[in-house]
Amino acid sequence: MQNMKNDIPADIIELEQLLEEALNGNPNLIAKYVVLGQQTAAIYYIETLVDQDLLQRDIIQPLLTFVDVPSINETERFPVAGIVEVKVIQSVAEMLLLGWVYLHSDDSRFNFLLNVYRPPNCSFSKAEIESQVFGPQIAFNEILRSNIALLQMYLPSPNLCQENLEVGVEIKTQVAMFYIKNLTDNELVKRVRDRINSLEIDGVVSSAQLVQLIEDNKFTIFPQFVMTERIDRTSYSLSEGKIVLFVSGSPFAIVCPSTMMDFFSSAEDHQVRWNMATFFRLLRVGAMVLSLLFTPIYVAALTFHYEIIPSAMVVPLAESRTRVPFPPLMEALFLEITIELLREAGARLPTKIGQTIGIVGGIVIGQAAVQAGFTSNILIIIVALGTLASFITPIYLMGITIRIIRYPIIILAGFYGGIGIMIGICFLVIHLLRLTSLGQPYLYPLYPFRKGDLKDSILRLPFSFLRERSMFTHGDDTFRFVEQETVSSHGDIDE
């Protein structure tokens, strides 16, 4: 991090320039001036973090009662929670990001920070879509100002840069772009800025619409940017050198660029032990493979490859299919579409009714379908496991993608058997190899292969192994922390 411990200058104009430089041009930095006798007092604060009522009542109004610039002995006339004298610009910048107000006089007799911090006062709800046990439970909401304040509260860093952009000709939609200086590649920042500024559209009303307008590939079914409602995932992504976008009126932050493994990583993975997190990540990847291939293998085995069925399962399979008049392909498609209808109906109905429809409907329709001879009971188990596996992915859009990709692979398995499955997998892998996110490879670090970056992608090694940052975003600062010698844990008890 750049060391900016400059002494505070007396000149107000020079001071303001240094503050803007220290805060990397934060657009929420506000400056107000009050003339007291022959001197001018300047008031600096971050608009989104300060209670405006307290600022007016406890700082500006008492300040107007002074005939001259107040001294250190007169600060008790400001009824605030805390008053601190400062000497360097860096301290001022850091405290401004914590919700303090800085008072300065042009003769440098008055250099004080006063605490009028206001936590975000809108009603933040618990994260519903990306729920987890450990970590922050708060989620973003539809108010852009509140989301910005929440992010600044979790990341009080002067290097957190914010750029305010505008999208839309008829409907002016505000977009806030965040990144951390020295951690994010300037070329990526420029690419996102140019793509947003080049949009000529009536208006954008959600983060999902903006994603579809600025992504690399408009025709792929795979999501190329992570959309999250969680503050911890957003903060960690910024610390990894990624860019975060907030759209006014949308409760989801856009994280870009993203790799495919980002969609199988949960924010909770950094809250639990490394071996637990590694197990969960491997479980999610295995669940994706299971969801994609379980039903196609069933269709291919019963249509072309009876020899791969274990001998102990031949009789149960034959008995379960004795009353089914359809070929395995039609049987599988019927049951897969039925499951999707139940899922979609449960999602669109009110919460309590939707849960009832999903549970009761699945049991009743499944049992009735077996008794009526539309499907076999073994296929019901297979389809249910495949559907359940698709819900393990932490990002909802990737789960939908997996379920949709399953259909062409099932059809290929029904027409060409195992060869059809391999054709589908080969097309899928080729497509993923060609896919990019903001010009970055989608399958990173598997392609191009980066052994060092596997430690926090498919795996999650201990934090002591994560000293070097991922090269995915090509930031200038390549180290998370500096290694230090630790005290040996094998000393004598008496030491």
UniProtKB/TrEMBL annotation:
Q: What is this protein called?
A: Spore germination protein
* A Pfam family assignment: GerA
Similarity comment: Belongs to the GerABKA family.
Q: What keywords tag this UniProt record?
A: Membrane, Transmembrane, Transmembrane helix
Q: Which residues cross the membrane?
A: 243-264, 285-306, 354-372, 378-397, 409-433
